[in-house]
Amino acid sequence: MLKAELLCRDARRQEVQSYLKKSHATKKHISKTVELLTNWAKDSKKNKADNWQALSAYTTPKIKGVSALNGAGIKSAFRDFLSPQQEHRCCYCRRLLLSHGSAKPIEHILPRQTFPQFSLYYWNLSICCADCNRKKGDHAWGNISPTDLAYPRPTDFEDFFHPRFHEYNSHVRFFRIETNGTAFSIYRGITPQGKHLCLNLLRFISAKEALCTTNPVIAPALIKLDSFLDKAEDLNLTSVSRFINTLNDSLEESI
Using CB atoms within 10 A of its CB, is residue 176 exposed (0-12), middle (13-18) or buried (19+)? Predict the structure, then answer.
């Protein structure tokens, strides 16, 4: 089932306008942010260019009395706008999102590697947890053509779950238990889209969480790692990222 309020094109346009009015936490940066996002989005569509890296790398010098305008701030404002709509939960597994940005990456529903024309399209972006983001990766679900320049309508997503357009509870049932020492979730798809999500993503997330939280060595180490990331969000953590990727590879081999 689709979110009824988004079936109307005008309603979708109104939401985009509401976001743009809050596209940066610093009011003085909003007009420039809107200009940047609009121009990058147009260029992505016209030239099939992935402008996500341009956003990530963008920065201006700090002016007296005004903070610097950079990609991190623009992304942070997007998370702040969308997170309440998602009840501060991952768009896929529905676990609560942690506070630091590296734990709640912005997800490209149609992956930008295959669909660069939608790399900055508002409705193609969502917020997920690091586990779901890593596992889904650049997999292009469904039969959407990579050559399409117009973003598909909500009704076009028939063969996989689209977190911005589909009502989660109408497609997936989940049961979750979390105690001091362990946590696990059980997911069941109740529609073709929900079953696809469970088969291709959620069953792995559930197994990994159960493995990590019940392992007496891994569990406390992951708690310390999350605590460190929370304090070091703005640092360039290349080595830490490599370690996390290696750790995740090892864990997935055990599932």
Answer: middle
Q: In DSSP terms, which residues pair with 174 in a beta bridge? A: 187
Tokens in use for 120?
Answer: 């900055």
Q: At what angle do helices 218-231 and 238-254 cross, to 10 degrees?
A: 150
Round to whole Å and give the CA distance between 133 and 248: 12
Apex CA 60: angle with CA 58 and CA 66, to 5°? 130
Question: Percent of the chain having pLDDT more than 70?
Answer: 80
Tell me which H or E stretch contains 207. Answer: helix 203-214
C-alpha span between 36 and 123 (Å, rounded): 17
First to last CA, the chain: 31
Average pLDDT over residues 159-177: 95
State residue 254's pLDDT score. 61
For 36-57, letters b (16+ CB in 10 Å) and e give: bbeebbebbbeeebbbbebbee
- Token pair belonging to 153: 């309508």
Cβ atoms 174, 186 nearer than 8 A? yes
For residue 15, which of 142, 130, 122 has the smallest C-alpha distance?
A: 122
Which ranges in 48-181 belong to alpha helices (H)? 52-57, 71-82, 130-136, 168-171
State percent of the chain over pLDDT 90: 62
